[in-house]
Design brief:
mainly alpha; 24 helices; 3% strand
């Protein structure tokens, strides 16, 4: 049953009698701070779980995150160059710059942060599903089931764990989007805007939604106007100001995204839709449609707004794909996250609406819910096996990266190798090698033949096909200190 927003807000505290002194009626400071204890404990719990998970998984950042770590280090030494991949985005930059002050711990800090923020999306998804399902006369188990289902379904998105454990920003942005929705529904408008602004620093698809929310907040909550104005200015400066100073164009992110090898070349409209639908199982999609149908019947505007936002996000992604950008499935994780929330709401509605018909219908609803959950077990097992296989591959990659670290040290360190010419490696290792050498990604090449034919000094870093080590070759060397390197 839909719950009016007025019922979601805390009840007003009755005014104290005039005869009482302020000292007796004022709320103790400790009681005010106690409101934040659950948030603090949750944050600590997420950090502990994320640290354990990072240590257990033994994975390393992906191609893009290594590039973000490079941004942090190069900013600290005043040598940032954002011309090369990965495409510029300010969200990870907000973390990697301060983390770079801690040297090689920068990578660990980013890994733990990325995992912790990503996992918080489970909490927000559950809270939204619970809020939209709960109400007067609703069985207690219905909103709880909705919350659990939504959180579990979020982690069940295709390749979601891969992007979490490789410290990508996409699951983080999902958490920020869901957090913004949860804060708005909780009456925390300022926090909703802040989280939305942070999400917009990670993906441009958020911009239309944040723009609409900014207009609404500007007109409805005048006290938010300084926050809204400051947030928009900060977004513009971070997205376009930093690239203007560190690359060939303020729009380097857009130019780098064009011509991707993973972009759709045929039927970009239905191809993008297919990529989105591939993130869920059909059962989840049917549950979400059921939630929308019930929302239409009950005139539940919040649920309908979430459904409309999901569709709008996919439409924006289609427009991006038609423009020439990749339109990858992970760019629609946010819309998929909202859809699994709707699916959780659908399950909750099934459990809450059926008993209103009759007790027998209530038991039928419970039976259907059990069947729905059981039907998701086989695909969940399949995806778990796929994620396990991916972890095995990623651990081999970690061993390979660790071997390269040892090779660089044995050859005299990063500073000596940088002085011997342009480093080159395979494209998939470009950002990782740049991080290992403490250099900009733009300074690390990947076109072997072209660089060797040019005749300038180069140092080739090539992993052995067996994956047991690295071959380092110095070519066209003129410095005596570099001529002793392997040839």
């Amino acid at each position: 049953m839909s719950v009016p927003e007025s019922k979601l807000e805390s009840p007003a505290v009755p005014s104290a009698p005039a005869a009482e002194s302020p000292r007796t009626t004022a709320r103790p400071r400790s009681s005010k701070l106690s409101r934040y204890y659950p948030v603090l404990l949750t944050a600590i719990g997420l950090l502990v779980i994320s640290t354990v998970l990072v240590l257990w998984a033994r994975t390393r950042p992906g191609f893009d995150p290594y590039g973000w770590l490079v941004w942090g280090h190069q900013t600290v030494v005043w040598a940032l160059n954002t011309n090369a991949a990965p495409s510029w985005k300010p969200l990870p930059y907000l973390f990697t710059v301060p983390y770079a002050v801690f040297g090689h711990y920068e990578m660990w800090l980013w890994l733990i942060t990325a995992v912790a923020v990503s996992l918080s999306g489970v909490i927000f998804a559950g809270r939204i599903a619970y809020r939209l399902t709960n109400g007067d006369g609703v069985p207690r188990y219905a909103p709880i089931a909705a919350a659990v289902f939504a959180g579990a379904a979020l982690l069940g998105l295709t390749q979601y764990w891969h992007y979490i454990l490789s410290a990508q920003s996409d699951p983080m942005i999902v958490a920020l989007v869901l957090g913004a929705i949860d804060c708005h529904l909780s009456g925390r408008r300022r926090w909703a805007f802040v989280l939305g602004a942070l999400a917009s620093l990670g993906r441009p698809e958020v911009w239309p939604f944040l723009a609409l929310y900014s207009i609404w907040a500007w007109r409805t909550v005048p006290s938010m106007r300084p926050l809204v104005a400051g947030g928009i200015i900060a977004i513009l400066l971070l997205w376009f100001g930093i690239p203007a100073l560190t690359s060939r164009t303020p729009f380097v992110a857009a130019s780098n995204a064009l011509g991707s090898g993973r972009a759709l070349h045929n039927d970009k409209v239905f191809g993008t839709i297919g990529r989105f639908l591939g993130l869920h199982t059909p059962v989840v999609e049917l549950l979400a449609l059921f939630a929308v149908a019930v929302a239409i019947w009950r005139r539940d505007r919040v649920t309908l707004a979430l459904a409309a936002g999901t569709v709008a996000w996919v439409i924006v992604e289609i427009a991006f794909a038609l423009h020439g950008w990749p339109g990858l499935a992970r760019y629609m994780f946010e819309a998929a996250g909202v859809m699994v929330v709707l699916a959780g709401v659908g399950l909750g509605r099934l459990l809450s609406e059926a008993p209103r018909i009759s007790p027998a219908a209530g038991w039928v609803g419970i039976g259907l819910a059990v069947v729905i959950v059981l039907s998701l077990v086989p695909p969940a097992v399949s995806r778990a096996r796929s994620e396990h296989a991916d972890i095995v591959v990623q651990r081999r990659r970690t061993d390979e990266i660790n071997r390269l670290t040892g090779v660089i040290k044995s050859l005299g360190g990063a500073a000596r190798l940088r002085a011997c010419g342009e480093p080159l490696t395979r494209l998939e290792y470009q950002t990782m090698l740049a991080y290992q050498l403490g250099d900009n990604v733009a300074s690390v090449g990947y076109k072997y033949g072209e660089a060797i034919a040019h005749g300038n000094p180069v140092v080739l870093f090539t992993p052995y096909p067996t994956g047991i080590g690295w071959q380092v070759q110095a070519v066209h060397q003129t410095r005596p200190s570099c001529q002793t390197l392997p040839h």
